[in-house]
Amino acid sequence: MENRSEISQLGEFGLIERLRGNVTLTNPTSLVGIGDDAAVIQATDDECILLSTDMLVEGVHFDLSYVPIHHLGYKSVAVNVSDIAAMNAKAEQITVSIALSNRFSVEAVDALYAGIRAACESYGVDLVGGDTTSSTSGLIISISVMGRAKRDQIAYRSGAKVNDILCVTGDLGGAFMGLQVLEREKQVFLADPNMQPDMEKYEYMVGRQLKPEARMDIVYDLLEAGVKPTSMIDVSDGLASELFHIVKSSGVGVRIYEDKIPIDHTTYETAVEFNLDPVTCALNGGEDYELLFTISKDDQEKIKNHPDIHFIGYVHDRKDQNVLITKQGTVVPLRAQGWDHFKG
Ligand code: ADP
Ligand code: MG
User: Fold this and answer.
1) Rounded to the nearest whole angstrom, what is the distance from the C-alpha of residue 34 to the centroid of ligand 1?
2) Which of 97, 96, 85 is nearest to 148 (CA)?
3) In the chain, how many domains are there?
4) Which domain holds residue 53?
């Protein structure tokens, strides 16, 4: 009998590792390929092009019964720009490819593109092309983004050094709790279509889920402060998962402190309401699109008053000793659960 291996056994990251092992780069301009938030391509002696792509699939990444299609357009650009920001670079162009079933009207596509254009405007990005095709099962959006940076300004996942400070922007777990709220309201609505959900209390989290922003502002703030992160990644799958990418690529370990993890108070209260642990939501909830980065200790002073950058821990030399220090002072090993689309 023919051998058949299940993708779920490898998981998303295992599968990518397997693909990566079979790829070699041949062009001298391909500086960095698979394995970071974006590929790095040499443009001139001192400048590089950054290239990244992300696909959003209806029923997997979004549910149009509660996601306004305009927001979906905005978000699909924001998540791509976020991968360029995660290289400490500026996004400049995107291409947008869509596959549509006949369920979608011209007006729906107009609304999707209004969202895409709004995001292009807010990030200073140009829409320069794409592809259009039909689909038998709903909507698929695939966006590629190009960015640019000085070669010596690019931040990789692999640059974290012992004694560096771990920083994260904004607050975490909000987008995940927003999704929980939206899913719950959907079930309530399906049970009784006359029920009008009271969403005011959850507005912040629902906004985090439906309208995430790429943190390009942080890239500019760091440049202005004269701080180049030693390593950087965007938080798309959850803080724990992203920390593991950094420690694995950099060959280091991390220690983070529970009381330093930024969680908005409405996220905290809603997690408790849902019988979830707020810290677990911040560690393992996805889609916040904040930036996680390390800086040299000497640079901490330069950004210590930034209102949206939080110091959550530091880097040490003991690989495989990635720990969370709880509020009670207990040492707990970090585990990366993240979002795995291949696990049921
Ligand atoms: P992110 O969450 O930052 O978008 P991913 O986890 O999707 O990153 O991807 C990690 C790395 O693997 C990236 O460098 C990406 O380009 C690469 N990658 C993902 N899927 C594939 C694929 N099917 N073929 C080749 N490279 C891939
Ligand atoms: Mg990323």
Assistant:
1) 6
2) 85
3) 2
4) 7-153
